Amino acid sequence: MSGDNVNHAWRPSTPARSEGGDEASTAERHSAAGDPGRALRRLAAAGDRAAAHLWLATQPDLLAATPDPADAPVAEIWRAALRHHLAGEPHLAAARLATAPIGATGPHAVQMYCHAAVHHLLDDDIERASADVEEAAHAAHACGVPTAHQAYARVVVLLAAATGDAAATHGRAAATHGRAEATDGLRRADADLLRLMVHLDLAGHLLWAGDAADALRHAEAAVRLTEVAGDTGFEPYALTLAAVAKCQLGRLEEALADGAAGLRLRELAGVAADEAISLAALGMVHRRRREPRQGRQALESALAAVGSGQPRIVSPAWVLAELARIRAADDLCAAQDLAERAVTMAREPERPYALLARGWVALLRGDTAAAHFDAAEARTGATVGRRRATLVEALQLTVLAADDPRASAGLLDDAAALCRELGDPAEEATVQLIAARLQGRQARRGAEGAEQKLRRCGVRLDPGVADGLTAITLRVPAVVIHTLGDFRVFRAGAVVPYGEWQSKKARDLLKILVAHRGRAVPRARLMELLWPDESPSRTANRLSVLLSTLRRVLGTGRRTSGRGAVLADRGSVAIDLDVIDVDVETFLTAAEEAQVAVRGGHPDTARALVRADELYGGDFLADDPYEDWAQPLREEAQVAHTSVLRALAQHASDTDQKLVYLMRLVHRDPYDEDAHLELVQVLRAAGRHGEAQRRYRTYVERMRELGIAPAGGEATGPDAGPAGAGGGQHVDSSAGALARWRAPAAQARPWTTELGGAHRPTGVPAQRTGNPRRLIEHPA
Q: Is there a single domain that holds both residue 221 and residue 295?
């Protein structure tokens, strides 16, 4: 996984002033009016972490004070730099601070060195930031001004957080006078802002260092502090950090929910800062979940944000590498080009991951020599740079690109051990599945166990993105048509390139034939669907050309014996489902077998249901949502999958797994009342009363959108009893879902986010005021 390759993505940033919204323009007006302090605080409130760091490093009494003649040159340096920063010119600000003399004294010198340290932190230049802090220390001790000491102490705390020194941020030696002095003289809101920045910076550094568990702890603390400090502009970024940490820990369902919620909050609040980070993180989560369509959308948006004039707080090489792995699902040539660009642009920290992406794409293209070379280079770079997550995948690629993968399979034991150190069960299961499939039938039970573990982590198993699961799956040549989700055709284990179809009409013809499920379609009907405004006399030859193209693409043309995949006579055309594998047919068969097992109480019911769920890769022909001929099969598959999810929720013995299935039901149909109420019931039974109440509020809002009274009347949660006097009352389930709840006492705003389902992001309190998310509040 790629969590340790976002090392340059989590440092403080300055949003592009052209996209900063009202807060940025207001800050500029304050700056122009001679109030830079207020401008800084306004930008900080809008989620600008660079402005927040500068504000915390500032002595407010110096902003408008007239310096002594001896201090005037030093004062002009930091004030000019601040003006440049507020104008959206951080590079000019840094250049101005670079002219700072060494050994200056006085409060203005402390201010100059503190601002210089912050700018070097923004550039990830810890060595120069540390030197600036040393200069600030000498100047602060020499002048003896309390506010200068306090500003210096705050910068020391910020530097410690940026370098991952958690202990130092909570109390330092006498030389820095500890954290108490760092907060002396601050308003309550600014003291909370300091704690918030510390948690965010520590989380970012710990993600870079590969310590996802501690990073998550600090990210969740930051989410909670956004409410305390009132700095809700930082909440999207805090949620992004939580999403990345959970992604590294293999908690992919939760990572998706947090990442999507962060983007949703960013849109509602108009927060422009760190948009590229949020999009890139969401794309990474989708890539790990093996969802190429969603991942491509997020990563292409992130790449556009990086190149739109916003500061490069996300490495373009890392985004390109992630996108290359995603594009391998539909276009290996495009994926190869993206991977080459990533390697060319990559700096040393992310170069091993860029090489890894290029190696996976090369392996899927059949170039094992190139894949083996990139695997060796990535393995060396990851080892030297201590990039453990990258090293795990480099070991996988080394094995799968070898002439005899079984002979190299011992490296997978090392990879599994690294996964356990990282605390990533999803990647560990991936390694175990690759090892089991290399062993063959004798390891079938181990493979099934690894597959189940991956499903529990939210990972899909169908081939697609460039990774070890796709590489091991495609070792068996086959002709497979993927219609669930994105439309793709695999021939001999590789995606048929788009250019080989020669025209979009050939793809459309195959889609139409698949939608008719092997039934013969009259030629006249095909011509009407493909060329609705043209005469059949003009399109008959075109149809024949398309049929020839289709036979060539599928690699199953006419033979001397047997039949090809395309069956055609003078009057009609059909596709032979006995010759090729169509995923929607496989899914529907598996879903029916699973339902038969449910009705018959078969001991393998759970396994049959899980297999059916795994086979559902998305809606039928999701890239053709408006074609009438696709709708019947799409709806049939959707209904079958919903039935499978309901049965899985009923048969799941593990509470967390049951919750996952119920959340997926709610995500599929946000107005499914029974699924909402059962989700609340399971949460309450597990003792998760806060989450149960939040889920219930989401349900109430959904029912009101339909004009339907929710179960329990004016209920906002299942915790109030009759007449608002206590706990919810559970009744006989045979009475139906609506009878399970009594009316709670009070009405409160439900939590919801349209992205990533109804799962609530980490650590957000139930009651919120003064928050831009109230824009989604249902009107009373």
A: yes
Residue type at 629 in one-letter notation:
W
**How does residue 764 score in pLDDT terms, banded at 50, 70 and 90?**
very low
Task: Tell whether 643 is covered by a domain.
Answer: no
Nearest CA to 242 among 285, 272, 271? 285
- 500: domain CATH number is 1.10.10.10
**What is the domain extent for residue 164?**
57-186
195, 110: one domain: no
- Which of 583, 604, 621 finishes a domain? 583
The neighbour count for residue 15, using CB atoms within 10 Å, is: 27
Name 551's bridge partners.
none
pLDDT tens figures, 6-51 = 444 333 444 433 344 444 444 444 444 467 888 888 888 788 888 8
pLDDT tens digits for range 296-346? 999 999 998 886 544 446 789 999 999 999 999 999 999 999 999 999 999
- pTM of the predicted structure, to 2 decimals: 0.59
CB atoms within 10 A of CB 774: 11
The side-by-side arrangement of strands in the sheet containing 479-482 is 494-495, 488-491, 479-482, 581-582
Total tally of structural domains belonging to the chain? 5
Q: Which residues share a beta bridge with 582? A: 481
Question: Are residues 711 and 761 located together in one domain of the fold?
Answer: yes
Q: How far is the C-alpha of 140 from the C-alpha of 111, rounded, in Å?
A: 9
Exposure b/e, 651-666, CB count within 10 A at least 16 = b: ebeeeebbbbbbbbbb
DSSP string, 35-65: -HHHHHHHHHHTT-HHHHHHHHT--GGGSSP
DSSP 696-735: HHHHHHHHHHTT-PPTTSS-S-TT--GGG-SS-----GGG
Question: In terms of domains, do 287 and 412 share one?
Answer: no
Q: What CATH number did the domain enclosing 379 receive? A: 1.25.40.10
